[in-house]
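Incident log, support desk, overnight shift.

02:14 A customer reports that sequence design results differ from what the structure should imply. Their input is reproduced verbatim below. On-call engineer (initials T.W.) acknowledged and began investigating.
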């Protein structure tokens, strides 16, 4: 479990996450996360996805956020809020090429959201560094299968992708892969 104010960074999406209220703080009711998306954070740096059992409430605190929710593209500016219900296919990114996007997101119930964020950032960190032992598709499949009640890749061919990742996850587990990866705090210069 992450401690409050612990910061994670995803070098592939160019987003940093600071947990303001942890699962422990709220007895599992929710987690509250401050996110900063760099100007380099774009639509191509993420997946359209679904939270099957969680509601996500996003409040833009500064900058501008572009979203796609259930196929509809909408822009949100500072002070505006978006509520994403369980099952809504969505993706968001920084809409500006000149300023960072700052937002607060609250995920209800918390479930294992902190562990998912940590695993996803660690996986991205290893892929970004192109380390000789960087996780591969089988490792990603094991992680997505483990957190399937939190995060499911959506979009075209969702059922086919889901079935394919289930098969890959089974192969990955047979090879000894686990859903976690070691996250290392990166120095500012490496971000």
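02:41 Re-run completed on a clean worker. Output:
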């Amino acid at each position: 479990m992450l401690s409050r104010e612990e910061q994670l960074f995803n070098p592939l999406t160019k987003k940093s996450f600071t947990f303001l209220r942890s699962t422990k703080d709220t007895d599992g009711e929710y987690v509250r996360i401050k996110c900063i998306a760099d100007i380099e954070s774009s639509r191509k740096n993420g997946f359209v996805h679904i939270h099957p059992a969680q509601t996500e409430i996003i409040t833009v605190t500064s900058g501008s956020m572009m979203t796609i929710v259930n196929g509809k593209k909408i822009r949100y500016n500072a002070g505006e809020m978006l509520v994403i219900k369980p099952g809504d296919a969505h993706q968001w990114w920084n809409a500006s090429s000149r300023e960072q996007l700052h937002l607060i997101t609250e995920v209800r119930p918390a479930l294992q959201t902190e562990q998912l964020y940590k695993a996803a950032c660690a996986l991205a960190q290893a892929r970004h560094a192109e380390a000789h032992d960087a996780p591969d598709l089988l490792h990603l499949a094991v992680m997505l299968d483990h957190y399937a009640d939190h995060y499911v890749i959506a979009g075209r061919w969702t059922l086919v992708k889901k079935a394919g990742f289930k098969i890959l996850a089974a192969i990955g587990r047979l090879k000894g892969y686990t859903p976690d990866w070691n996250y290392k705090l990166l120095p500012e210069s490496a971000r």
